[in-house]
Amino acid sequence: MNYSRSPVFTVAAMKRFLVVALLMLAQPALAAMSLDKIIVYLNDQPNSRDDIVVSNPDEETLYLQTEIYRVEKPGMADEKRVRVVDPKEFRLLVNPARAVLAPGEQKRFRLMSLERDLEQEVVYRVTFKPVVGEVKSNRSALKILVAYQALVFVQPHTAEYRFELERNAGGLQLVNRGNINGEVAVMEYCESPGNCRKLSHTGRVYAGASLPIDEALADGELRLLVRGQQSERLSLPVPAVE
C-alpha cells in the first residue's frame, strides 16, 4: 500500500511560515495627504508670501510637522541640503510649523521670505512630514508615512534665466548664465527648419549650472520649451565643431 507522506516542518520553515502569515494579516494604513502645489515662487521684496493648502482625505487624523532645508549650490555636483534649525538663520518662515488635521480637513500653510536684495535666486525645500499617530484597526497594521517636499524659489527683483550652448572638450552642454533657474520641458534639434527631432535631454537647470547633451550635433539649432513662472520657447544656434 502507498501511504501519503506527512509534511515535516523544520524550525526554519516554521519561522518563515509565521513571518508570511503575519504579513498577510497586516493591513497597510496609509497616512494620506495632498498639497495644492509643490512649487512656490517668492521674491526678495517685503511681504513676499504664498500659501500651500494641505488636505487630509484619510479617515485617520493627520499629525503634521514641517522642516525647512536651504539648498546650497543647487544643480551642482556638490549640491547640499542644509536643514535650517537656528532661529537666527531663518530667512524663510512657515506658519504653522506643526498642525493636526482631522479627517477631511484642510489647512493653509503660509510661506514668507525674509530674503532681501538678492543677486541670485535662493532655493529652499520645505518638507511636510506626517508623524505617527494611533492606528485604529482590529487587526495587525502597518502605517505608511509619506512625506511631501515643496520647492521654494526666492528670486531677485531683476530675474532671468539665460541659456547658451557651449562646446568644449567634454562635448555640447546647455549652460544657464542667468540668475534664476529654468526647467527645460522639451528639447528639439533641428538640422534644418523642416527637419527636427525630439531629444530626451530635459530637466531643471539652475543658475550657473549646465545640462550635458550627449549627442553628436553639428550646425542647425536647438529649440527649447522652458518653464518658470511662465513658459517660453527659445531657439539657440548649435556651435560648429572646430
How would you describe the overall organization of this protein?
The chain has 242 residues and is mainly beta. The chain has two domains: 27-155, Sandwich (Immunoglobulin-like); 163-237, Immunoglobulin-like (Sandwich), CATH 2.60.40. The protein has one helix and 20 strands. The protein has one helix at 11-25; strands spanning 27-31, 34-35, 39-43, 49-55, 62-72, 80-83, 92-95, 98-101, 106-113, 122-131, 141-145, 148-155, 163-168, 171-176, 182-192, 195-199, 203-205, 210-213, 221-227, 231-237. Strands 3, 5, 6, 8, 10 and 12 form a six-stranded mixed beta sheet that branches. Strand 13 (163-168) and strand 14 (171-176) form a beta hairpin. The longest helix has 15 residues, at 11-25. The N and C termini lie far apart (89 Å).
Task: For this entry, give a set of tags.
about 240 residues, mainly beta, Immunoglobulin-like, six-stranded mixed sheet, five-stranded antiparallel sheet, 1 helix, about 50% strand, elongated
Topology:
Elements: H1 11-25, E1 27-31, E2 34-35, E3 39-43, E4 49-55, E5 62-72, E6 80-83, E7 92-95, E8 98-101, E9 106-113, E10 122-131, E11 141-145, E12 148-155, E13 163-168, E14 171-176, E15 182-192, E16 195-199, E17 203-205, E18 210-213, E19 221-227, E20 231-237
